[in-house]
Design brief:
Blueprint (H helix, E strand, L loop, with lengths): L1 E3 L1 H5 L4 E6 L5 E3 L4 E7 L2 E7 L5 E14 L6 E14 L16 E2 L2 E3 H12 L35 H16 L1
Antiparallel strand pairs: 1-9, 2-5, 3-4, 4-6, 5-6, 6-7, 8-9
The structure holds zinc ion (2 copies).
One zinc ion binds next to loops.
């Protein structure tokens, strides 16, 4: 949704609370996309700040599907947004070196882009399907939460591993 901020900059009495839907199907980090499974309504409080600036408070949450770090099972994570922005008059950027926020195009605020970027920053660093997830077997790739595959996952002595590397490299050449 595009929200025109002109009145909020011109009129010192202007203050509104808007209910905004988030319309992106995924959180796109460029190299990976996380599907958005549901979104609550986002509340935008937009106020003239009485100093030539406009203050915006954004609150809401979405549910995002992310793979478990160990076994890759996709699990839902609730990602909340609770952010505050104080925006300079867009015309002031023409004279300054500063760059306007990415979600601003002149006086138009792109709420989907703002929410998307805030969700990106709020994504959890660590995702586990459960605290004691056993992960995938490094030998056969089986999900070890579903049972023991019986593979030998003994980690050899590092000196032995070095010899193993040389052996493997030799085999590749042949
Ligand atoms: Zn897992
Ligand atoms: Zn295995």
């Amino acid at each position: 949704m595009l929200i025109n901020l002109t009145d909020y900059f011109k009129n010192t009495e202007k203050a509104d609370a808007l209910d905004v839907e988030f319309n992106s199907e995924s959180i796109d980090l460029g190299y990976i996309k996380y599907p958005v499974t549901s979104s609550g309504i986002y509340r935008f409080e937009i106020t003239n700040n009485n100093d030539g600036k406009v203050k915006i408070l954004v609150k809401g949450f979405s549910t995002v599907l992310m793979p478990c770090d160990r076994c890759l099972l996709e699990v839902e994570r609730k990602v909340s947004v609770d952010s505050e922005f104080v925006l300079d008059e867009p015309s002031s950027y023409e004279e300054s070196e500063e760059e306007a926020e990415a979600f601003l195009n002149g006086y138009e605020l792109d709420s989907d882009l703002l929410i998307h970027n805030e969700l990106t920053m709020g994504l959890p660093m660590k995702v586990l399907c459960k605290d004691d997830c056993k992960g995938l077997c490094p030998v056969c790739g089986r999900n070890r939460n579903e049972g023991d595959c019986g593979c030998d996952t003994f980690v050899p002595d590092p000196r032995m591993a070095a010899i193993q590397d040389i052996f493997n490299a030799h085999n590749k050449e042949v």
